[in-house]
Prior knowledge:
By secondary structure, the protein is mostly helical.
Amino acid sequence: MSDVASVSSSSNIYGQIASGSSLTTAADGAAETAIAEELETQSTGYSVGADNIASGIDLSNIEDSALSSISDYLQRIRELALQASSDLLSDTDKAAIQAEIDELKQGISDVASQSTYNTINLLDGSTSTLSLATDANGNSTSVSGYDATLEALGIADFDVTGDFDISVIDDAIEAVTSTRTAIGAKTSALEYAYNYNTSAELATNSVHSTLEDLDIYEYVTEQKKKETLDTYKLMMQKKQQDDEESRAQQMFTTFTT
């Protein structure tokens, strides 16, 4: 049985050295193995959560960039509307201005309908809240879709060839600005959460490494010392056995003579 145990122990030693882990089986430390597994689960959760959060940041950046373009369109529309407010312009002039405004409105409509992330529409009003898992404990955060269509902005029927109110454009600009402010605040929160996850993952991996990783040089040195002591014990046991046999032989010779 001792030989079998010795072979098993030797096999486990070589397994630990080959893997670089001090916990190749639960027998190497049941409690430590359970803790190591939990730490690995936490680390994986933080890593995947960080990836999810990074995707949320990318989505928010797409929204902000698209809304920035819409804001530029609206500023140009406002400029044209101010021109059209002049009584010195003819109906033909105002019609030409309206033609450009219609092109700008189409641009806004295109941005609202074509701004997507992984086929998810972001600015056409069809997407509300999107949840993002942030760790292995079921915690989550979220990002939102918005409605930047002409109808939502209140400018679908804006026309400078008749009576019009330029404050409609001001309201649209304010709505877009307010949305971009909300996106900026959310992006900052997501960046904070991302930094937390990456830091937590590093800290968890450090603890896991301290618990599980094998210092091969120290381990081999200790095993060599143990083997030397075991060899010395065997030699002493053999010497003691030989001495006892020698004394027994001397006593037998003395007794028979």
